């Protein structure tokens, strides 16, 4: 996940820099904004990846528990 987040941040840096330069933003401001945007994207993607893994792991554990319960009580029929 880290490698994907880093690659997306690098791409975002260059895209933001190109957009800033095309709109006539000074180079120092363009680079600062591009670095900040890339950093925010990296952190956001890391948090989203961790949240996704946590949700999937929770669902897998819950799915396993309910399947075990269904088997132990006669297939879920009462």
Folded structure, characterized:
With 78 residues, this protein is an all-alpha fold. The protein has one domain (2-67). The protein is built from two helices and no strands. Helix 1 packs antiparallel against helix 2.
Provide a compact summary of the structure.
With 78 residues, the chain is an all-alpha fold.
- If you compute it from the alpha carbons, what radius of gyration comes out, rounded to the nearest whole angstrom? 22 Å
Query: Into which percent range does the helicity of residues fall?
Result: over 70%
Number of strands: 0
Sequence stretches where pLDDT stays below 50 over 5 or more residues: none
Shape: rod-shaped
The main pleated sheet reads as:
none
Oligomer: single chain
As for the number of domains, it is: 1
In terms of structural class, how would the helical and strand content be classed?
Answer: mainly alpha
Helix/strand order, N-terminal first:
HH
Sheet-strand content, in percent, reads: under 5%
What is the residue-averaged pLDDT? 87
Instruction: Tally the helices.
Output: 2
Distance, first to last CA: 44 Å
Sequence-ordered SSE layout with sheet pairings:
Blueprint: H1 2-22, H2 27-72
What features would you highlight for this structure?
mainly alpha, 2 helices, single chain, 78 residues
